[in-house]
Amino acid sequence: MTIRYFIGVDVSKATLDWAVFDGKTTVFQTQSVNSPAAIRTTVKLMKALPGFTVADSVCCLEHTGIYSTHILSSLYRLRLPIWLESSLQIKKAGGLQRGKSDAIDARRIAEYAFRFQDQMCLWQPPRPVLQKLAALSALRQRLLRVRHQLQQPINEQQGFVEKSLQKQLTKDCQVSLKAINADLANAEKQINELIQSDDRLKELFGWITSVPGVGDAIATEVLVATCIG
User: Fold this and answer.
1) Contact 31, 18 (CB under 8 A)
2) Span 82-109, pLDDT tens digits
3) pTM for this structure?
4) Cα separation of 219 and 204, whole Å?
């Protein structure tokens, strides 16, 4: 795959900063709103560059979680090759550099893609079942954190506050903890049903949980982190 244009995108919640590098210099730079319509408009502008084709270009961006949803889905529909790279990897490759802004970061991402094009790994969207599994797993993690935030102070106060006050504080949290535990149980049920409904995930889940000491929660996280198809 011969690449003529290396597109770097710095992603934030509200905006996207774009930079196009041709191997020698930045030939195009702009900022757009982080929305499907704005992304399509920006790609249309880039297509006006001399000899630009999606087949001879690659768009590199960092993992930014949910903020990358629009650009990943939009670029994939436009058939523009996508390289989703670790932010830590890009920072390590750049070394110590002066100056930082979204526009500068976009140029650095584009230059990174040019320098390390031999290590390029194109992104493919995960199957819908994996997207749902990832969302449910993230929900479970949030519920566990909230439960811990409520429960830990109560446990730590044991023996350090007056007994009647400790009893009252514990009682005040019981309704919330009960609701969180119910939501947590529901999320875990949905995760289990989802895995069992998919032959490939069910098989992998069985292999992972066959390892001594590996439980359902860890196995689910492994599936989310490693399965791409």
Assistant:
1) yes
2) 999 988 888 888 754 555 788 999 999 9
3) 0.76
4) 9
